[in-house]
């Protein structure tokens, strides 16, 4: 009984001490909620600023002062269809993504060719991407990252249903098989057809990310590379618009990256799917990011680094 009595006394004493404590200067707020309030206040401020400037300015209050050169890229149909706006980039915090520009997706006897689709559609982005890479490689600090989709030689990282579907649409030739006159096993790492096409092949200093699926944030080291490089903004190209490109853009958007798709730097196996994928990005004022083109993007880079 004495033990219970002592516990009761201790609780009463604790309550009396709590009543005598001075109130917190910020009642009911911890570090997280205070930080969230600051962000919401900045949203209000930047909303008003956007109405005047039509520019999504680089938020130095969030990321710190610019480390490279600031440049603005015009984006289309934002916030509404028929409108135009601008996105401001810090070159040192910007990464250019060239997604899956592999022989398997845009070259003869590759995976897409075997499935019977028009290679003219998936090879259309090659020249715009070449132009962008030439501009970026000309003494800018914008990072370049290439991705490749493919599987281990034993296909242990390829889902059964993915292999089965590929074999059906390829009339018996699917992932892991070699088509007649082909360069190697389709979508298998290390094969010539799996690699990036010569016109867009990475140069020293550029990054290559290998992935087994459509996305890159759950099955590759892309998130680690972006974080270690201090990247905040992504400029996205590659194939196909409606599959791997869209998947990675959605993943990046959900992880807080500012994403801009270069519409002539991407393509799909079906032109209707390409158009639909572009339109989806533009919905809701840019539900996954924004859309621009290679001309506007390279013009902005040249203006920042070459004075025009």
Low-confidence parts: 23-31
What is the rounded distance between the termini? 87 Å
DSSP strand count: 9
Radius of gyration, taken over Cα atoms and rounded to an integer in Å? 25 Å
Question: Could you please describe the fold and organization of this structure?
Answer:
This protein has 308 residues and is of the alpha/beta class. Helix content is 42%, strand content 18%. The protein has a 6-stranded parallel beta sheet with strand order 6-5-4-7-8-9, with helices on both faces. A 3-stranded mixed beta sheet has the order 1-3-2. Helix 10 (241-254) links the parallel strand 7 and strand 8 (258-267). The model is unreliable at 23-31 (pLDDT under 50).
Short description:
By secondary structure, this protein is of the alpha/beta class. It has helices spanning 2-20, 31-53, 60-63, 103-106, 111-114, 119-123, 126-137, 160-169, 222-229, 241-254, 271-282, 294-306; strands spanning 55-56, 70-76, 84-90, 94-99, 143-149, 207-211, 233-239, 258-267, 290-292. The relative contact order is 0.14.
